[in-house]
Amino acid sequence: MFYINAMQIRSVGQNIKNFGSYEGYSYNSYNQNSTENENNKDGGSKLLSIGGLYLASEGINLLSNKVAKLMAKGKEYTTPENVKKVTQSMLKNNNLDVDVYFVNPKNIQLVSLQSGISVNNLKEVAKGENAFYTESLFGKVAVAPTSKPSLIQHELGHAINAKKPFLKLLQKSRRYLPVIPTALIALNYLTKKKNSREETFIEKNAGILGFMAYLPTIIEEGIASIRGIKAAKTTLAGKGINLGVLRKNYILAWLTYLLGGIGLGVASKLSVKTGIPMQ
Ligand SMILES: [Zn+2]
Hints:
- By secondary structure, this protein is mainly alpha-helical.
- The chain has a domain at 27-78 and 153-274.
- It has nine helices and three strands.
- The chain has helices at residues 41-73, 80-93, 108-115, 119-126, 151-161, 165-173, 180-191, 201-235, 243-274; strands spanning 98-103, 132-136, 139-145.
- A three-stranded mixed β-sheet has the order 1-3-2.
- A hairpin with a 2-residue loop joins strand 2 and strand 3 (139-145).
- The longest helix is centred in the last third of the chain and has 35 residues, at 201-235.
- Zinc ion binds at residues 10-12, 154, 158, 221, 224.
């Protein structure tokens, strides 16, 4: 969901179906012919490990989809009225100048007009499958589905993070994620000694480097959720709410990011091995 600029901060849940950035690793571009078939043991084991990595990445994608679906099906922890109370207190206690919208198929046009966000970018939200926080020239906006309002607390968690310089830095780091595999291929090319069969640092560590690039996002997502949970706890203390349900929903959403990080690690390893950016 990148519609206004790269500042777009992605939503709860990194569902492959919903989201822009890079999670839909396009393995269609994977081409066996382009891997060096060296006709020796090395070449054979290299092909085997490429196959293994490819399968692993497919598995991660499937699992991530499953987790995202589970989250989408999750119940709400409290009533929409209570969520609105939490929303108000998050806005007030943190001096947030964020416009908040709850979107459904009936009000999608109106929200689009009021927020400046295109109908297209609100569609998934209206369906209950997405929520996001975004900053643009038009202002700061957080949207969540009317059917799943509690997602707004996580998005406002992002809005609070955006006010803290270090966390803002973590947020911004995600804009570089799409180019990580390409960057690693380039770095590897630059650091590889000519005619050397020795593994370079990048070749050895591409997986962990890819994951590390994703780590700031995983951390920032976690902090946004913790803020959302804490706000519910303090605002709705003694109201008999089921915080466990909220926690579970948020953990599932966070898991999709963790899987995204592992996926980027695998994609990075594959990219460096094949010389083709996989993302
Ligand atoms: Zn998020």
